Amino acid sequence: MKRPHQRQWRSEPGSIAAYPVRLVMSGSTSSGPGPNCDNDVMGLERTHAPQQTARWLDEQTGDVARSLANGPAVRFPDQRERSGMRRREFIAGLAGVATWPFAARAQQPVLPVIGFLNSGSLERYRLLLDAFRQGLNDGGYVEGRNIAIESRWAGGQFARLPELAADLVRRRVSLIAATGGSASAHAAKAATATIPVLFIGGPDPVEDGLVSSLSRPGGNLTGVGVNTSELMPKRVQLLLELLPSAAKIALLQNRDGVGADAGQRDVEAAARALGRQMIPLMISLQSELEAAFVSAVRQHADAILVSSSSLFTDRRVEIVALAARFALPAAYAWREFVEAGGLISYGPNIAWAYRQIGQYASRILKGERPADLPVILPSKYEFVINLKTAKALGLTIREGLLATADEVSE
Questions:
Q1: 332 or 16, which is more confident
Q2: What is the CATH number of the domain that holds 117?
Q3: CA distance 222 to 81
Q4: Does one domain contain both 304 and 245?
Q5: How does pLDDT run across 283-312, given as a tens digit for each residue?
Q6: N or C, fewer C-beta in 10 Å, the chain?
């Protein structure tokens, strides 16, 4: 009787022979594998080519055999051992071995997932998303290593936010970062009462109905309140210091934005106190931007204030270009507008706010509750001037005003 021998081979992908399975075969003189073979599955002879044997095994065992990838070796018994074994017993054994790689995968830890909801687009918010990631890094979380981020972008279509928020809830994320304005926070709040929600909102998160208290938010929401609308009168003053002769100041607002009415009242009051007139410009679509600037010029506006809204932040490059085209000195809420070529900005650092909610996300993932984390308010406001834009508009900035700027862009 010949001694059993051992053979290994490789074959094309998709074949049983392509997997790391060692076939230990006897040297019997059977007529070979086939449906009428007495030895059936066990009748593998050395005279058969590896490809033929693998093809026959595929026919007999089907998908079960293909699950052997990266599995342990399988030994085919010799004549004496296989005399009492039936094909169904052999296939059952293969099925048991096939579960090995899946069981190993099941033991791997599952990464927590953060849902990142934004009313704008990735292209325009990429740097702010990076600031959020930096906040996560501060708390020891690195995307792709021990945390995953699922992003949902509304692209300026606010009506999409409720469905995008609901999709993140169905995804069973660990928490939701609702960014790009209060509309995102409201959509997330309506979608879940249990998943923690972090927001960047304003002008007043309590009055806006997001939290019950700034110090003890309660519920499942907390975040950063930026209060930019309250800074509108200060922006009016700064514009008039740049352009003392300005008699009419236009105010560009998002008709659907939270706090739009309050912002308009503040600007009207500030303009009236300084003997100036305010021209309201309300839009709700990005396509209405150019028409709004045309309207400002027709009404003889001398300057324009752009309120804080994700509708405008997402289109800041276009807005800055329109202000330059119509030669309108403009004041903005965020420094990102000045970096894009805008004249001046006064307000909190929005990248700071995104980093703050990233840090809060880290704390929540470690077990803290949103209800116990106070809403963060900015303690510093930045005044940024773009000298190149001022010169293009023919404006001379006095030294005293330059000295008060936190940053002057050449």
A1: 332
A2: 3.40.50.2300
A3: 68
A4: yes
A5: 988 899 999 999 999 999 999 999 888 889
A6: C
**Residue 291 in tokens:** 């028409």
Helix axes 350-365, 122-138, angle to 10 degrees: 50
Task: Answer yes or no: do 207 and 252 share one domain.
Answer: no
Residue 246 and residue 340 in one domain: yes
Given a cut of 80, is residue 29 above it in pLDDT? no
Answer yes or no: do 290 and 362 share one domain. no
Give the tokens for residue 237.
């003053």
Partners of residue 376 on adjacent β-strands: 224
| Angle, CA 342 vertex, CA 340 and CA 347 arms, to 5° | 95
Looking at 192-334, list the stretches that DSSP marks H as alpha helix, in order from N- to C-terminal side.
Answer: 232-242, 260-273, 289-298, 310-313, 316-325
Pairing state of beta strands 303-306 and 23-25? unpaired
- pLDDT given for residue 59 in this prediction: 52
Total domains present in the chain: 3
My answer on whether 69 and 130 are in the same domain is: no
- CA torsion 125-406-271-331 (nearest 10°) is -40
Same domain as 253, residue 309: yes
Q: Give yes or no: residues 272 and 405 share one domain.
A: yes
pLDDT digits (tens, 9 = 90+) for 135-166: 999 999 999 999 999 999 998 888 999 999 99
Distances (CA, A) of 379 to 225, 227, 293, 376: 11, 11, 33, 9
Owning domain of residue 157: 113-227+352-372
**Of the candidates 106, 137, 154, which is a domain's last residue?**
106
- Alpha helices by DSSP H, listed for 171-315, are 182-191, 232-242, 260-273, 289-298, 310-313
> Using an 8 Å Cβ cutoff, are 205 and 223 in contact?
yes
pLDDT in tens, 357-393: 999 999 999 999 999 999 999 989 999 999 999 999 9
What is the C-alpha separation between 320 and 118, in angstroms, rounded? 22
From residue 342, alpha-carbon distances to 6, 61, 331, 346, 381 in Å are: 76, 69, 8, 12, 17
Indicate if the pLDDT at residue 37 is higher than 90: no
Torsion-angle region of residue 9: left (phi > 0), alpha (psi -120 to 50) or beta? beta
